[in-house]
């Protein structure tokens, strides 16, 4: 039986870039047909347009459009920062995906208190709602980022705390499995580099790059969801799933997108909180990292919930974006689908 068959699934931040693709694939039934997918977010306008997209979508079998609180796709306006709001959403959920986040690095630097509210207190509210109420929650998946690994910025620091809050919750809520996934930059997510560069090129330039050496891990939204689904299928309590993905220089991405256009590149310097290279698995985590189903799996730092000592670690050194660079021909093949400016989040 597929793991989400007949389950009530809650997606916090469900109207975001990742949330929308996650919801689409949940409703497609590849993990089983959920009884209901509840989209939880604080933006009523985004919920409205998401509802309309599904209302206009032809379906071959069962209707999935919004029907108040009874449809297979339902919406809940609320904020992970508010405990009562979280309780109302969690109380009937079997599985929770926490995709709600403040994710823009410079914004978090200027508003660290806001980042803490969403990225730290939000996850704490989810754990508290499960611990203090009679909920049926079986699994919680925390969505993290490479910036949580050896964090130097507020966004990464708060996401690192989210990881520890969720993974440590396995001790307080033994009936619920808490796991995390950690991945790098999603190529086409809102505010990411490819849409930014394409917009700058459309405006005639210049294309802005921080420094020539800067590298980033790259994966598609569907690869991000693949990682989440792999964790749902096979992660043990407290584990963190990390995809094996390539990286690229920002300069190489800009060069491919510009092509033969007469657009200049300018260098702006590193923004507040940025790294030159990102890390998905630190050298401190290597000794407790194994491989499973094509993913790196980081065993929890807490001995009480660690499942096995890793006799033969999968990594001998940190997993850095500086060491997994794509050659230009493979990078071009990866980026080609995004050269047509379209919204990859739209249901199809």
Can you offer a commentary on this structure?
With 348 residues, the protein is α/β, with parallel strands linked by helices. The chain has a single domain, classed as Rossmann fold. It contains eleven helices and 16 strands. It has helices at residues 17-28, 44-55, 83-90, 105-110, 112-132, 154-172, 193-202, 221-234, 250-258, 283-286, 328-335, and strands spanning 8-12, 36-41, 73-77, 95-98, 139-145, 177-183, 185-186, 207-209, 215-219, 240-243, 247-249, 265-267, 279-281, 289-292, 295-298, 319-320. The strands form four sheets. It has a nine-stranded mixed sheet, sandwiched between helices. Strands 7-9-11 form a three-stranded mixed sheet. A two-stranded parallel sheet has the order 8-12. Helix 1 (17-28) packs across helix 8, helix 5 runs parallel beside helix 6 and helix 9 crosses helix 11. The radius of gyration is 20 Å and the shape is globular.
N- to C-terminal distance: 26 Å
According to CATH, what is the topology? Rossmann fold
Question: What is the string of helix and strand elements?
Answer: EHEHEHEHHEHEEHEEHEEHEEHEEEH
Number of strands: 16
Mean pLDDT level: 91
The CATH class: Alpha Beta
- Give the overall silhouette: globular
Q: What is the gyration radius calculated from CA atoms?
A: 20 Å
User: How many domains, as an integer?
Assistant: 1
Unreliable stretches (pLDDT < 50, length at least 5) are 341-348
CATH second-level architecture: 3-Layer(aba) Sandwich
């Amino acid at each position: 039986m597929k793991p989400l068959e007949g389950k009530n699934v809650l997606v916090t931040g469900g109207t975001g870039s990742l949330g929308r693709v996650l919801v689409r694939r949940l409703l497609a039934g590849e993990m089983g047909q959920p009884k209901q997918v509840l989209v939880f977010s604080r933006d009523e306008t985004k919920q409205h347009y998401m509802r309309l997209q599904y209302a206009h979508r032809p379906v071959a079998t069962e209707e999935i459009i919004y029907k108040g609180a009874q449809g297979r796709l339902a919406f809940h306006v609320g904020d992970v920062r508010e405990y009562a709001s979280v309780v109302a959403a969690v109380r009937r959920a079997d599985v929770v995906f926490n995709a709600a986040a403040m994710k823009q690095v410079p914004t978090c630097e200027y508003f660290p208190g806001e980042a803490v509210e969403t990225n730290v207190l939000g996850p704490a509210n989810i754990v508290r709602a499960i611990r203090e109420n009679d909920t049926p929650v079986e699994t919680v998946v925390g969505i993290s980022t490479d910036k949580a690994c050896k964090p130097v910025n507020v966004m990464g620091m708060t996401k690192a705390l989210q990881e520890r809050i969720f993974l440590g919750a396995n001790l307080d809520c033994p009936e619920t499995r808490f796991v995390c996934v950690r991945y790098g930059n999603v190529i086409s997510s809102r505010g990411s580099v490819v849409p930014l560069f394409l917009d700058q090129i459309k405006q005639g330039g210049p294309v802005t790059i921080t420094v020539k050496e800067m590298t980033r891990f790259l994966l598609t939204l569907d690869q991000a969801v693949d990682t989440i689904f792999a964790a749902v299928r096979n992660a043990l309590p407290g584990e963190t799933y990390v995809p094996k993905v390539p990286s690229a220089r920002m300069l190489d991405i800009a060069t491919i997108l510009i092509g033969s256009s007469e657009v200049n590149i300018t260098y702006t310097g590193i923004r507040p909180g940025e790294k030159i290279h990102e890390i998905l698995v630190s050298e401190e985590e290597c000794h407790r990292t194994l491989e499973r189903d094509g993913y790196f799996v980081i065993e929890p730092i807490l001995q009480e919930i660690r499942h096995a000592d890793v006799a033969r670690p999968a990594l001998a050194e940190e997993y850095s974006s500086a060491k997994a660079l794509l050659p230009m021909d493979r990078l071009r093949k990866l980026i080609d689908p995004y050269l047509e400016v379209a919204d990859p989040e739209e249901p199809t």
